[in-house]
Automatic annotation (TrEMBL):
Gene Ontology molecular function: any one: ATP binding
Record-linked PROSITE patterns: ABC_TRANSPORTER_1, ABC_TRANSPORTER_2
SUPFAM superfamilies associated with the record: P-loop containing nucleoside triphosphate hydrolases
UniProt keyword terms in alphabetical order: ATP-binding, Nucleotide-binding, Transport
Residue intervals of the ABC transporter domain: 5-244
Organism: Metallococcus carri
CDD domains recorded: ABC_NikE_OppD_transporters
Superkingdom of origin: Bacteria
Protein name (record): ABC transporter ATP-binding protein
UniProt keyword Phosphoprotein present: no
Coiled coil stretches, renumbered: none
Annotated GO biological process: transmembrane transport
Amino acid sequence: MSDGLALDNVSVTYRQPGGRRLRAVHDVSLAIEPGEVVGLVGESGCGKSTLARAICGLESLSSGTASFEGHPITRLGLRRRPTPLLRAQMVFQNPYASLNPRRRIGAQLEDGRRIHPGRAPSVVELLDQVGLESSAAQRFPHEFSGGQRQRIAIARAVATGPDLLIGDEPIASLDASLQARIATLMRSVALDAGASLLFISHDLSVVRLIADRMVVMRAGEIVEAGPTEQVWSGPQQAYTKRLLAAIPKADGRGELPQLLP
């Protein structure tokens, strides 16, 4: 596939003290089409974040191939990342560590806009997309709450004019009251920008809310995948059934409330 993300039998292995090897990701094949929202779910430590880092070139593949829009994904080195791969951008879990504390928000958004001049909205438009006033551009990260910082991180990723947004547990460190709102915001902002979205989370309820397709990982492998409602209502694997059974039933019927971005 040349128009999106393509992973073919991708594996990532870490060397540990004593010469042992830890297989974090094993033989994962995954394709994401343009404009598609895919939710990648599984328990902590199952390899979700390692896979995300490999997609962005932050981890080396031990085997398999990965490409984005027809360009091979390689491990980042000291040189500038190849321009085509800059169109895959990640929003990290910790909104407190992902922004430069010494620079104003507007300057950090402008950094992203310079990657693809003319492709992204203005700073004011970016802030408006994530529900922040234009005055936020003149402020520093410490002046914002965690939820606001994650909104800024989303705006910064969109500022590059991406074709793929990757959310690596972007709601895990936020209050429960904010999690669904930030997730739905990521979906709407990504699709408005014409990008696809890979949303990684252990919260299946939120993934159900925003994803077109759900992919389930266990111990570094994909064990089930399909349209979100199909996986939700008719899981085929015992592991997926256990994940779904563990979800708190907020209203006693297992139904999600209707949430707005």
